Amino acid sequence: MLRKPQDSPSSLASSAATIAARLDAAPFCRLRLAILSVVTLALFADIAEVALGNALGAVFQAPPRSMTQTELSLFLAAIFAGGAAGAPGFGLLGDRTGRRLALQLALLVIAIGSLGAAASDGPVTLTGFRFLSGIGIGACPPLIAAYLADVMPPRWRGAVICICAGLAFLGAPGIIFLMRATSPSFLGLDGWRWALGSGALLAILAAGLLLLLPESPRWLAAAGRIAEAEAALRRFQVRSAVDGAPPPVATQAQPAGSGDIDVTSVRRRFLLLCTLYALSPWATIGFLLMSGAVMLKKHFSVGDSVVAAGLIMFGPVIGNLLMAFVIDRVDRKASLIATAVAMALLGLSFAAASEFAPLVSIGVAFAFCSAIYASVLGVYAAEIIPTALRSSRTALAWGIGRFVSIFVPLVFFALLHRFGPWAMFGLIAAAIGLSALLVVTIGPQGRTRRPVA
Fold first, then answer.
1. Using alpha carbons only, what angle is made at residue 131 by residues 267 and 177, rounded to the nearest 5 degrees?
2. What is the per-residue pLDDT across 254-312, written as a single tens digit (0 to 9) for each?
3. CA nearest neighbour of 101 among 90, 114, 115, 86
4. Predicted local confidence at residue 431, as pLDDT
5. Which numeric CATH code is attached to 262-453?
6. 307 forms bridges with which residues in the sheet?
7. Average pLDDT, the chain
């Protein structure tokens, strides 16, 4: 059968570019606000599950459910191991079947794992279900970043992702407070079971609400599904003037079909992202996990250490929400370099400080910067990878970071107990400093306030 002229590769590429440009020109409408709200709920559930793992680690060290050191280590590592396994698979699914469907499936996996963990009676089944939850948990952040990068206006892309992350980070204290309110038991169930069940319900709710939202028109067009892309696009175009206007040449997106991808350039960018995500956990995750232990090493009481760790956890919320006002006014590379340098200096300052108030202040500032770095890195990753590969490549790089996260507490505990805080924070400074150097020397420019390819 002869190919219809409108189905030729050049025609499909032109149609994809036109749809992408019209999507970028559409205003920030109620639909985009709904997308932001739903994916924030999804990320809220994701972050709550990660934070819950740390809280459960403390619960299961005490009677009546005491775990051995080996069982506890496996339990804490399970969620990161699951993330390393799940992110690449769901990322590939996001490029093959769409961002929305992949995100829905990831949320359902989280829900099944959380409900299974809530019903578990032994460490083996509990660890197994936490691994299952981790498969979905590791996939959600890169899928959400890819979806938002696809559908949000270029001039507000970074701000929207920062707002999403900032509000979602409230999931950490939220789920912990819920567990505290229902402990030791409520209506005959342990408080930790209520917390796991609540996380599952949030994930199910977010997956259900995603059914009401459209798939990314940009991804549909890149996949050659032009009619579906047009139908999805019409939901974003709330004004007939925008709907009927031809795309401006200055904002026209580049075709995202596989034939237009510079394979060598994408490979270099992907390898850079893998390296940055492998280095990132030593600072962004390691500090938050180890801040309480460092306080104890500095001879503060357990109570003071817990208070300090709790206050420091508000740094990511504050950092992301404040960064939303400026992220789209500053070059992505400059943001990454500045926050990386700030983290290196703040980490060394934390190692040197000995008074409670300065330690907490420095800790909040470090968490503030680490949250900004993580969010900007997520935006940067989504912007420098083309639409056809955005989900799979960013998720695989993210998964490498999750895999490295398994070893971060093991290495840091060994350094802290054998050599003290300076050794631990020296490694943090070295890792984040190397990241800054890589971004300076070989990092491509981001696409601040510009369309993604």
1. 110
2. 444 444 567 888 999 999 999 999 999 998 888 877 777 777 778 777 567 666 766 77
3. 90
4. 94
5. 1.20.1250.20
6. none
7. 84
Task: Report CA dihedral (308, 311, 316, 318) to the nearest 10 degrees.
Answer: -140
Band of the pLDDT at 51, cuts 50, 70, 90?
A: confident
Q: Which CATH superfamily is domain 8-240 in?
A: MFS general substrate transporter like domains (1.20.1250.20)
Q: What's the CA gap between 270 and 257, in Å, rounded?
A: 18
pLDDT band for 212, please (50, 70, 90 cuts). Answer: very high
> With contact defined as beta carbons under 8 Å apart, do 170 and 41 qualify?
no
Residue predicted with more confidence, 413 or 337:
337
Residue 362's alpha-carbon distances to 10, 308, 344, in angstroms, are 55, 11, 12
d(CA 103, CA 400): 19
Task: Give me the percent of the chain exceeding a pLDDT of 90.
Answer: 41
- Quick check: do 8-240 and 262-453 share a fold? yes
3-state per-residue secondary structure call for the chain? CCCCHHHCHHHHHHHHHHHHHHHHHCCCCHHHHHHHHHHHHHHHHHHHHHHHHHHHHHHCCCCCCCCCHHHHHHHHHHHHHHHHHHHHHHHHHHHHHCHHHHHHHHHHHHHHHHHHHHCCCCHHHHHHHHHHHHHHHHHHHHHHHHHHHHHCCHHHHHHHHHHHHHHHCCHHHHHHHHHHHCCCEECCEEHHHHHHHHHHHHHHHHHHHHCCCCCCHHHHHHCCCHHHHHHHHHHHCCCHHHHHCCCCHHHCCCCCCHHHCCHHHHHHHHHHHHHHHHHCHHHHCHHHHHHHHHHHHCCCCHHHHHHHHHHHCCHHHHHHHHHCCCHHHCCHHHHHHHHHHHHHHHHHHHHHCCCHHHHHHHHHHHHHHHHHHHHHHHHHHHHHCCHHHHHHHHHHHHHHHHHHHHHHHHHHHHHHHHHCHHHHHHHHHHHHHHHHHHHHHHCCCCCCCCCCC
Sequence spans of domains, the chain? 8-240, 262-453
Report pTM. 0.82
pLDDT at 143: 95
